[in-house]
């Protein structure tokens, strides 16, 4: 047996995650992913007013803010059978698009970059050479020798203060860091630029959503921000959108390409096998036909065959999760009999269940969406992917990797950002034509069932609701990080992140930087992933198939 | 001062004039309820801190929304706050270190700065089964709180979860979650909200740096400068309330005219916070401004006390 290494806490994610790997001969031989917290929001929802659900579930996560609220109002709208007006759909798409822009930007620079960028090495960079490098690879609006000198000086002052704060005790100087000092300085400068930009990007949410995080303008039936459908508010949104999209095109993408060119070996590390996308961004009332990002399933990496997604093929296994043993079941019929026990990787080791599609683990998220769209011949995504692999001089198959996952995230950010412009124009046209409808009135039925399938920054997200006596009888959500970070299933098949870690080279088991690279590439969100359990009541939750 | 000059140079470089910055300091000083004579001193806190005060930020049962809210702050933008104003010794969402290196960092910070660091707690503490529902580095939230909080100079509970339990403490509170003050039997300074406006956190910290003490609090542990008045008393739609001009349906003519949301379930009359004045995301908007009733998210137990939300009080 190889050397077991535990990383707990995994930092630069949302929530509490523990990763354990077994290392043999300088490579990861086996891996276990464990969710370490639960809160019980689905139980809290029972018996409440269905109109309130989105406020509760939005608090599943402040990083993926908005997404659960959106999924929830969609599920309730399906259950009460109301169709929202086109303006409400457009505003929701715009807020959702802004969430992708914000979330992916923050992930790349603030949650993921330090796995690839050595901040300490940046102190050794030549500012003039850095400026030349930046001019060569990017169209960033800020730069030049003086700028990079100032950034370097700022970092130096910070280091000299002896108070390293969030940069303390990290893996600086690790042999797996490959960037030259100049590339590190450029990335460090953009880390700081992006930190400032994201605060402005988030203002898009405030314009039509009151605030960020935790927007407050969605209601079942539409949106409340009818008063904000004015030229000045739309212009404000447009300004933030443009500034963000320019940064994405001129800085984020060039940085991604520049960093990736030093880490091409990661195009063969960290891949998984099967991919699932629900799709999102409806262009009309017709779903899934009108979705801008399509849904679909890819098995065994065969992107020439994208199967239609059928939700009745989803089951959840609990064999290695802290629940009483039982057969793998469809989430609608799922029984939850929690049984907290010891952490034992041979038996039970996580609060996350193990979702499977046709019995197989599936990766969800940017890579799954981009592969599905590519396989279906989505024109924008296809062009973006083809251009990128050409620039990096790598085959399309290199996408099945940690590098591919990180690249896919950036590419879909561009595509969605571009699509946002169309939605803004549509909104303006509607208002010009006198259509300011943002809400459809509706009545709460005594009984109803509905679900909303969504694709959010971290992947496929489904919410299901059952209403009885005008109250929530049952509420369930299956979230992206449960798909990606879940444990083994009854058949012993590893979850996607567990599979992805196998074969990862480890230079120094005491500093498993390489493990973080792959784990972070999934952008884990554990508060979302574990929210369902009540070990105290041992309650059984059942939702029928609709 | 040399530091101060560097600071203004940096601001200029980023297109922020000294005048803009002083305007912000005036705004912040007013938000904090201090007289205008404090404005230059407030500016000095950002421009030339002597030693950056160490902060240990703990995450328990929460959604990280409060950290995200702080990331949206400006003047100081978050990079200034992290690089030049505070010394964030431990914060799982932003720190580079992970695993046992992160654990080491926490231990060395609380040892090195014992009695001197500000402990910020985000999230509620699970108390059932000795707190076994939430762990970091194989220690329960409760064990970590008991280890770290008593060693701090002050404990600031950021957000409604750390202050009073929050969403996971809503009935039937499956995890037995409580605020950190209640979990430890200590008094905390509370900055509730879901999430709170970051300016109320920054104001509290500046108050501490400036005057060497925490601001005055109400009976619920909230700084009076931010939570001294109700939303209703400061609401720009108040005159519509007085004139009986109410929204009765979302998206309606009345909604378009910005009438009062009282009959749609607004909890502004019972909620103490400064949202109408400071607004969110750089003063861009706030819930009532976006046509949605106030949920009362800075009040203890609002998830149960104020719901169902879309019914008139």
Could you please describe the fold and organization of this structure?
- The complex is a heterodimer of chains A (546) and B (313).
- Chain A is α+β, with helices and mostly antiparallel strands.
- Helices cover 40% and strands 14% of the residues of chain A.
- Chain A has 16 helices and 14 strands.
- Chain A has a 3-stranded antiparallel β-sheet. A 3-stranded antiparallel β-sheet of chain A has the order 12-13-14. Chain A has a two-stranded antiparallel ribbon with strand order 4-5.
- Chain A is globular and about 70 Å long.
- In chain B, α2 (18-31) crosses α3.
- In chain B, β5 (135-136) and β6 form a beta hairpin.
- Chain B is 39% helix and 10% strand.
- Chain B contains 16 helices and 9 strands.
- By secondary structure, chain B is an alpha/beta fold.
- Classes of the chains: A alpha+beta (546), B alpha/beta (313).
- At the A-B interface, α1, α4, α6, α7 and α8 of A face α1, α4, α5, β2 and α6 of B.
Give the key terms.
heterodimer, A: 546 residues, alpha+beta, 3-stranded antiparallel beta sheet, 16 helices, globular, B: 313 residues, two-stranded antiparallel sheet, 9 strands
Structure summary, number of beta strands of chain A: 14
Mean pLDDT level of chain A = 91
Number of helical segments with 4 or more residues of chain A? 16
Please name the two chains that share the biggest interface, counting residues whose Cβ lies under 8 Å from a Cβ on the partner chain.
A-B, 99 and 94 residues
Q: How far is it from the N-terminal to the C-terminal residue of chain A, by CA?
A: 47 Å
Placed side by side, the strands forming the largest sheet of chain A appear as 1-2-3
Major beta sheet, strand line-up of chain B: 2-1-3-7-9
Query: In percent, how helical is the residue content of chain B?
Result: 25-40%
User: What is the overall pLDDT average of chain B?
Assistant: 90
Multimeric state of these chains? heterodimer
The ordered string of helix (H) and strand (E) elements of chain A is: EEEHHHHHHHHEEHEEEEEEHHHEEEHHHH
Number of separate strands of chain B: 9
Strand content of chain B: 5-15%
- Helical fraction of chain A: 40-55%
| Contiguous runs where pLDDT drops below 50 for at least 5 residues of chain A | 531-546
The best one-word shape of chain B is: globular
């Amino acid at each position: 047996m190889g050397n077991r290494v535990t990383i707990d806490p995994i930092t630069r994610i949302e929530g509490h995650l523990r990763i354990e790997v077994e290392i043999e001969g300088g490579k990861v031989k086996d891996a276990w992913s464990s969710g370490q917290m639960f809160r019980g929001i689905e139980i809290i929802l029972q018996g409440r007013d269905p109109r309130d659900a989105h406020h509760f579930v939005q608090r599943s996560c402040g990083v993926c803010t908005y997404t659960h609220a959106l999924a929830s109002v969609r599920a309730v709208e399906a259950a009460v059978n109301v169709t929202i007006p086109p303006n409400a759909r457009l505003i929701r798409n715009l807020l959702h698009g802004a969430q992708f822009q914000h979330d992916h930007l923050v992930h790349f620079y603030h949650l993921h970059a330090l796995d690839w960028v050595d901040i300490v090495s940046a102190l050794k960079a030549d500012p003039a050479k850095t400026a030349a490098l930046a001019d060569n690879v990017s169209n960033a609006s800020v730069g030049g020798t003086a700028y990079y000198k100032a950034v370097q000086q700022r970092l130096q002052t910070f280091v000299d203060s002896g108070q390293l704060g969030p940069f303390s005790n990290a893996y600086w100087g690790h042999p797996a860091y490959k960037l030259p000092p100049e590339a590190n300085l450029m990335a460090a400068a953009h880390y700081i630029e992006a930190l400032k930009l994201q605060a402005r990007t988030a203002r898009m949410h405030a314009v039509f959503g009151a605030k960020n995080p935790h927007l407050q303008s969605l209601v079942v039936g539409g949106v409340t921000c009818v008063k904000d459908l004015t030229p000045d508010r739309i212009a404000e949104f447009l300004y933030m959108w443009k500034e963000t999209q320019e940064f994405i095109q001129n800085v984020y993408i060039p940085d991604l390409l520049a960093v990736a060119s030093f880490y091409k070996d990661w195009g063969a590390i960290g891949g998984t096998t099967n991919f699932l996308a629900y799709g999102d961004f409806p262009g009309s009332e017709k779903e899934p036909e009108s979705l801008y990002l399509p849904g679909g399933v890819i098995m065994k990496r065969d992107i020439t065959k994208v199967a239609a997604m059928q939700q009745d093929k989803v089951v959840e296994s609990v064999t290695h999760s802290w629940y009483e043993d039982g057969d793998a079941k469809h989430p609608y019929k799922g029984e939850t009999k929690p049984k907290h026990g010891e952490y034992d990787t041979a038996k039970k080791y996580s609060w996350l269940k193990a979702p499977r599609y046709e019995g197989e683990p599936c990766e969800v998220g940017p890579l799954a969406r981009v592969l599905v769209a590519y396989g279906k011949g989505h024109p924008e995504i296809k062009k973006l992917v083809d251009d990128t692999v050409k620039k990096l001089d790598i085959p399309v198959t290199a996408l099945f990797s940690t590098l591919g996952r990180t690249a896919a995230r950036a590419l879909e950010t561009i595509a969605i950002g571009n699509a946002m412009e169309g939605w803004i124009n549509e909104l303006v046209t509607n208002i010009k034509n006198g259509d300011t409808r943002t809400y459809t009135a509706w009545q709460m039925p005594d009984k109803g069932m509905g679900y909303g399938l969504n694709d959010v920054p971290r992947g496929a997200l489904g919410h299901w609701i059952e209403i009885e006596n005008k109250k929530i009888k049952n509420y369930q959500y299956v979230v992206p990080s449960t798909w990606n970070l879940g444990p083994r299933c009854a058949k012993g098949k590893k979850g996607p992140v567990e599979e992805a870690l196998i074969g990862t080279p480890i230079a120094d088991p005491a500093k498993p930087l390489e493990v973080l690279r792959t784990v972070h590439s999934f952008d884990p969100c554990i508060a979302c992933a574990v929210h369902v359990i009540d070990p105290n009541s041992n309650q059984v939750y059942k939702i029928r198939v609709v | 001062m040399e530091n101060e000059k560097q600071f203004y140079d940096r601001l200029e470089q980023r297109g922020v004039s000294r005048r803009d910055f002083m305007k912000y300091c005036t705004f912040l000083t007013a938000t904090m309820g201090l007289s205008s004579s404090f404005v230059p001193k407030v500016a000095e806190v950002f421009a030339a801190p002597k030693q950056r005060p160490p902060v240990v930020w703990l995450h328990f049962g929460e959604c990280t929304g409060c950290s995200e809210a702080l990331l949206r702050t400006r003047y100081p933008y978050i990079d200034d706050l992290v690089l030049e104003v505070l010394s964030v010794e431990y914060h799982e969402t932003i720190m580079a270190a992970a695993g046992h290196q992160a654990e080491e960092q926490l231990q060395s910070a609380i040892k090195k700065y014992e009695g001197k660091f500000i402990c910020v707690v985000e999230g509620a503490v699970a108390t059932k089964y000795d707190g076994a529902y939430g762990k970091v580095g194989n220690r329960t939230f409760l064990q970590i709180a008991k280890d770290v909080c008593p060693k701090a100079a002050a404990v600031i509970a950021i957000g409604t979860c750390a202050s009073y339990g929050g969403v996971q403490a809503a009935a039937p509170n499956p995890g037995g979650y409580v605020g950190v003050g209640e979990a430890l039997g200590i008094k905390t300074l509370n900055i509730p909200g879901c999430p709170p406006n970051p300016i109320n956190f920054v104001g509290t910290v500046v108050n501490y740096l400036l005057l060497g003490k925490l601001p005055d609090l109400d009976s619920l542990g909230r700084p009076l400068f931010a939570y001294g008045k109700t939303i209703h008393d400061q609401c720009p739609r108040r005159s519509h309330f007085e004139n009986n001009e109410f929204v009765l349906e979302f998206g309606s003519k009345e909604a378009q005219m910005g009438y009062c949301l009282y009959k749609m379930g607004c909890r502004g009359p019972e909620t103490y916070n400064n949202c109408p004045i400071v607004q969110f995301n750089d003063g861009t908007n706030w819930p009532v401004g976006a046509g949605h009733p106030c949920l009362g998210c800075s009040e203890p137990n609002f998830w149960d006390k104020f719901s169902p939300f879309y019914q008139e009080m």
